[in-house]
Amino acid sequence: MKQSSVGACLACVLFLAGCTAEVDDSETASDSEALANEGTASPDAVKNHRLTCTGPHFIQSVPTGFFVSTEIGFPGNAAGMLRARATRVGSFERFFLCDDYHGGKAIKSIVNGAFVSTEIGFGGDYAGMMRARPGQATIGDWERFYLVGSYIISRASGAFVSAEYGYTGDYAGMLRARAAQAGPWEQWRIGNATWD
To answer: pTM, whole model, 2 decimals?
Structure first.
């Protein structure tokens, strides 16, 4: 799928859903980052440089009903890994969704304040792992995604985001941008979470 087609499709989905995004460049990046990083930002909109973020949101696996969690206690290259494993929404399951000027979205973990990356450099069973890397405060192609219907597509890899339900232990339900075609493991529901 061409990038312009995905962007046009995303615009149609957002229009039909009644979603709009406004970018206010009059705010400074430092003011915006202070709001976003304090964790006290309004759920209506958080401005962050050239991004307009809304939230909090949850991301839920359609086939299992599990909510996506940011694993902040994991060490090394697993720190901030995203897994579909929670049965309810808590602080690890809240995210901001941020519009950019390229027809995509950035996903920001609220619990650690980091943008979610697709780990293109990882190999084997970890290729395309999605994680909110500690300290990831900016976005590039690895942090951009397209939300089309019930699917999340990584801009960096062009692959659909999957939940790895065949994995066990600490890796069960790990999110990876690795699927060339969409199936049940690639279906997601994104909804509004509450602040509590």
So the answer is: 0.75
